[in-house]
Each structure stands twice: as structure tokens, then as C-alpha cells.
Amino acid sequence: MMVTLNQPVPAWTADSTNGQISLSDFQGKRLVLYFYPKDNTPGCTTEAQDFRDFINAFEKENAVIVGVSRDSIKSHTNFITKQSLPFILIADPEEKLCELFGVMKMKNMYGKQVRGIERSTFLINEHGVLVHEWRGVKVPNHVQTVLDTLKTL
Questions:
Q1: What is the helix (H) or strand (E) element at residue 142, kind and residue range?
Q2: What distance in Å separates the CA atoms of residue 152 and residue 138, rounded to the nearest whole number?
Q3: Count H helices, E strands: the chain?
Q4: Candidates 44, 89, 91, 130; catalytic one
Q5: Distance, CA of 111 to CA of 150 (rounded, Å)
Q6: What's the whole-number mean pLDDT along residues 109-117?
Q7: Strand runs (DSSP E) across 57-109, as ranges?
Q8: 98 a catalytic residue
């Protein structure tokens, strides 16, 4: 099963830097769930910093930011500390959330085909319905686009 726009997101549970969390933990809030390839890489660091720098604006829109990658909790904890990130990161080494949201893709890296996370962001409303998605995200201005979209809903 994969998520579908304008439909309820199936219930999920995942390990995070705040312990085990589930979709129901965010009921009554808007959830910005962003998938990124790897901690401490240039694009992923910039994206995380952008979400960090706009955190107050997201909170004013009743939105919670949560990042997801296949990195370990230890890697995530170091990334949070190094970048002063004020939000939760989910460790998805078994790719359960990645599969649910359909973000695993074949990509070219240094001339080789590798399977990895396609940078993507999903906006889930207060009732657990997927209301917007961005796939194949380019980092510049993305966070502002997500925030602008939130303000229109």
C-alpha cells in the first residue's frame, strides 16, 4: 500500500530521535514529513538548516516538521546536535516509511546506478489526510514553497 493524495495516510510507527512515534502522535497538527538521502551531506544539510531557520513560521501554521532517512538514530542524533535542529528525525533503515510514501528510486551517483531516497516532502493535515506532496525536490527555495502552501490551506 502506498499513500494517495487527498486520502488518509495509513497508520505507521517508526523509531525516531524522540523514541518510537506514530502518525497518531500528530493528530490535530499539520505534519510536514520530509524524506532526504543522507545526514551530513551538502544538500541534506542545507535542507535541514532551511527547515530549522523557518521553524517558528511553521509552528505559527500549526505544523510540525519531521525528517526521514535511512540513517541510524546515532547518525541522526549527531546531525541534530551539529546543526541545532529543533525537530525529530526518523530512522528508516528497513525502508518501511520510504516504501509507504514511494520515495525509493534508482539514481545515478558517480556514473553508477544506486537505489536511494528521492528527496520528497509530504504535507499531512490535522486529520491524517495527505493534502500535498513534492517529489524530486530541489533544495533551493523548497522550504519557503512548503510554508507558502501551508498558508493557503
A1: helix 142-152
A2: 21
A3: 5, 9
A4: 44
A5: 37
A6: 84
A7: 63-69, 88-91, 104-109
A8: no
- Sign of CA pseudo-dihedral 36, 50, 7, 125: positive
Q: Which three cell numbers stand for residue 153?
A: 490551506
Neighbours of 14 (CB within 10 A): 18
Nearest 5°: the CA angle 136, 126, 94 is 50
Cell of 39: 545526514
Beta bridge partners of 123: 32, 132
Q: Classify 31 as helix, strand or coil.
A: strand
Residues in the chain: 153
DSSP E strand boundaries for 78-129? 88-91, 104-109, 112-117, 120-124
Q: State residue 115's pLDDT score.
A: 87
Instruction: Give 40's strand partners.
Output: none
The pLDDT tens digits for 21-77 are 999 999 999 999 999 999 999 999 999 999 999 999 999 999 999 999 999 999 999
Determine the 3-state secondary structure of 68 from DSSP: strand
